[in-house]
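job 3f2a | input accepted
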Amino acid sequence: MKNLNKNKRSKLLIPVAVIAALVIIVVYTLVNNKKVIEARATAVPQSVTAIPVKIAEAELQSMDNHIELTGSFEARQTLPLIAEAQGSIIELNIQEGQSIRTGQVIARIDPTSIQSSLAAAEASYNNAVKNKERYERLAEAGAISQKQYEDVALNVDKARTDVKNIQQQMKYTIIRSPMSGFVSEVKVEQGSFASPGMELGGVVDISKLKMVVRVDELDVIKLKKGQAVSIKTEVYPDHEFSGTISLISVQADAGRKYNVEIQVPNNNAYPLKAGMFGTAKFNTDHHDNGKKLFIPRQAIVGSIQNAQVFVLNSDSTVILKNIEVQNQSGDRLIVLKGLNESDKVVVTGQINLQTGTKVRVVE
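job 3f2a | predicted structure (363 res):
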């Protein structure tokens, strides 16, 4: 009996040992796998793909005493055609693009209601005058007081003023052009109802145009009112227009630019229209025969005020450098500090770079 129990216990111990061994194997495997995963996660790649970039050299170049800026042509003067009376438009004498002169009748408003008001006002005035004459005789005879006579006399003055006001309204029924030029638009049709202050259309004077350009603070101090300017346009590439600076803004906009207006005569041989573009060339009086270090504007990372550039090292890596630049019209900047001649700066691909990044120069 004792041997039987002993055999049973031996049979039970064998599966327990097997299970324990399996557990040990599973735990060892999990621990080992964890170490492998962690080792892979912390491993640093031995090779990194080089980022393709384009570069340009910092170059010493002579200063150009010319400034070239692009701007648009605008009409010298634009005025609205305004109705000053109320009524139906019974006559409209303008079309878009039509040439008109100062004082030309462009529209008429139905004066019927105003004529009725004028007739009533004139009748009131005549009646007031007769009452004044009658009261004047009564005052001389002592039949009425001086105060009563003065009140009637005031009625005459009021009636006269009413007549003048309505006569002026009659004049407003005829609408005239305030200046010579061309009709830029017509906003109403014959038969439309007009009211005081309503805009019927517009007239522009393009006998002279103004070209507006935006100049930075370093260049605007080189310009002066009355200075001659040469202008080229895409519509007349073989013709050069002459203009003069008519206005230099006294205050910069949000972009630290100043508006400069150039007056340009218009002519029939090469007619210009408002909205066209041109390139103005200014010849400055600031002569500088020395050379300056230039880089392309697109090399700048960040703003002009806190300029940075990526410079190419000899081992094909890049380093981010702080530099000081001077804004220059066009696509170039003058480097005041931080770079040397022939330094190679990255002009495209900067978004993927940081100091130490490996790069590959492409054409």
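job 3f2a | The radius of gyration is 44 Å.
job 3f2a | closed
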